[in-house]
Amino acid sequence: MRAILESYDSELTPSEHSPQLNRRMREAEEMVQKLHAHNTELEAQLSQVLEEVGNHKQRAEMLEVEMKVLKSQECTAEQSTSITKEEIDSLRLKIEELEAERSKLEEENRSLEMKLEKLTLQGDYDPSKTKVLHFSMNPASLAKQQRKEEQQQLQEECERLRELVRVLEGGGSIHGNLEGVGSFQSPQEIAELKKQVESAELKNQRLKEVFQTKIQEFRKVCYTLTGYQIDITTENQYRLTSIYAEHQGDCLLFKASSSSGGKMQLLETEFSRTIRELIDLHLLRQDSIPAFLSALTLDLFSRQTIA
Prior knowledge:
6 helices, four-stranded antiparallel β-sheet
């Protein structure tokens, strides 16, 4: 390349040689400046890289220290893992118990709300939220008080009259210690009292007769409408005889669990053994005595119709 440059320079004239050298010198200087700038930049980058390497090294040392700490903590955590598992199991059991208790309380709350709503519909009220005003001169209270006083006076008067009638029937005289009887010592008053007693007894007898007549009328109406004659055999026990019974002894016996007759129980008879299917269907499955009696009436009626 030097020979080429020399041949190239020899071809140039002295006048052309100097500008060419100057230009090449400037280019060389520019190249040197660029190299210096590039070297400076590389040195800066090198120093930055060295600084980053130092930082990374320091960070690596810190990470090693942290790793050692973590390893030591991991060992302690493994030791406490068994304890934490037992605590977790106990906490789970407590949570399940609390959930069960919460569901139970919710159910009780719903039942209490239903009861409260039922009481509200029945006319009950909450004294803390509802204020009830009572009249000082309530007509109903006055009527009750007046009726109570009249009833008490009538009872006292009846007791005095009974005692007086007992004394008079025994043929004795009126005792002085009998309260309120001294005013009935005259024969006219005694006769009037006897008339009142006879009138009361006659009235009671008429009431009994009317009551017996109404009872018989009611039994006939029930027999005509329902098709069953109802008789009381013993206490809380009733005999039902159908109007379509084939035999006179075909009857059903029901026993009430209480005097109010809220729950009735069918007792076994010879006739009940012949209608086992109706008992199983309407009493055991459907739990309906009216449906059982209606089905039995239709069955007996169909038998008579076919016959």
